[in-house]
Amino acid sequence: MKKSKIIPYGRQWIDESDIKEVVRVLKSDWITQGPNIDEFERKIADYSGAKYAVAVSSGTAALHLAYLAAGIGEGDEIITTPLTFAATANMAVKCGAKPIFVDIEESTLNIDFEKIEEKISSKTKAIIGVDFAGQPCDLDKIGKLAKKHNILFIEDAAHALGSEYKGRKVGGIADLTIFSFHPVKLITTGEGGMVLTNSKDFYEKMRIIRHHGAVKRPEIGGWYYDIKDPGFNFRITDLQCALGLSQFKRIRKFIKKRREIVKKYNTAFKNIPQIIIPSEKEYVKSAWHIYPIQFRLEKLKIGRKEIYDLLHENNIKAQVHYLPLHLHPFYKKKFGYKEGDFPVAEKYYKQVLSLPLFPAMAEKDVKTVIKTVKKIINSVKR
Ligand SMILES: Cc1ncc(COP(=O)(O)O)c(C=O)c1O
């Protein structure tokens, strides 16, 4: 097979207008806590339909901040999916909580709503839904269930800025919603993240925790602040938010391009019996952070690893999202999880690869990926 240039599974799209904005801020009075942070928060909150937003240094920091504001701590439990990036559960562990995993639903790859309620205990503090690949989890149903049990619903929407659920953008639906602005995500600030909420109380708490736990006391003096509960430095910079604001201007275009590429992939792969294409519920409009396809391994002479290696040999840098969290050594050792606990997520993991998907992807690169995948499948099908 002829080698092509490297096609990554995801990457940023930075243009001259982004560079100009960052340089403008570099020459201004503020490079860290300046006006671009407030403006970026306002823009993302308005776009996503939330009242408040707090921008931070990463999606992981956003999760940590949301969990702290939610009061998740020692002895608590949170319920989440095993099919997510480690940070979703890691940050709960860092707050002292135990992650209780619930298997995924085969069609959406999101947490299986039907299996959540039986896992709710007196220790459960929150359900953490993850919008896998960009498809929102069952927001209405999970929200209702959380309310019924007087617990919180936190949405990890790191994959889903701009995704829609029953005509509404994600961000203002759960009690707290987090986004990531890592370069492979929907828009980027380099590193960066944000927590959205409609609760003034959470908003005020988060602003304090983001900045060391410092509470200003202007009645004593302009310089004065109290530390009642130590916080963190989770701050993002003005430079990053200038990039975010510039990127945000093109979010509609970015999502449109992603959806067009997904359509091309779906058309190319939908009739291949060895491939399962990802699906989108009829009430969802996904922003498509990643494009995970599954292989019916019983119809192939080789496994997923060999397909991964063949694609990489052809400079197509497909990825695997994700090893289910309960199979990581820490989660096995600390919480006693083991292979077989979540069969749907485990089966999915064994047969999945995320193909390259990013808005700046050239038409000919999409064609190369399709051609190469088809060629590999044809040469190893049973
Ligand atoms: C589902 C999910 N949650 C959280 C994060 C963490 O975001 P960040 O990389 O910005 O810390 C990621 C990043 O990949 C993610 O995919």
Description:
This protein is of the alpha/beta class. The chain folds into two domains: 16-248, Type I PLP-dependent aspartate aminotransferase-like (Major domain) (Aspartate Aminotransferase, domain 2); 251-380, Alpha-Beta Complex (Aspartate Aminotransferase, domain 1), CATH 3.90.1150.10. Helix content is 36%, strand content 16%. It has helices at residues 16-26, 35-48, 59-69, 87-94, 139-148, 200-210, 238-248, 251-269, 304-313, 329-335, 343-350, 363-380, and strands spanning 7-8, 52-56, 77-80, 98-101, 124-130, 152-156, 164-165, 168-169, 176-180, 193-197, 214-216, 225-227, 275-276, 284-285, 291-295, 316-317, 352-355. The strands form five sheets. Strands 2-10-9-6-5-3-4 form a seven-stranded mixed β-sheet, sandwiched between helices. It has a three-stranded antiparallel β-sheet with strand order 8-7-14, with no helix packed on it. Helix 5 (139-148) links the parallel strand 5 (124-130) and strand 6 (152-156). Helix 2 runs parallel beside helix 7 (238-248). The longest helix is centred in the C-terminal third of the chain and has 19 residues, at 251-269. The model has no long low-confidence stretch (mean pLDDT 97). The structure holds pyridoxal-5'-phosphate. Pyridoxal-5'-phosphate binds next to helix 3 and helix 4.
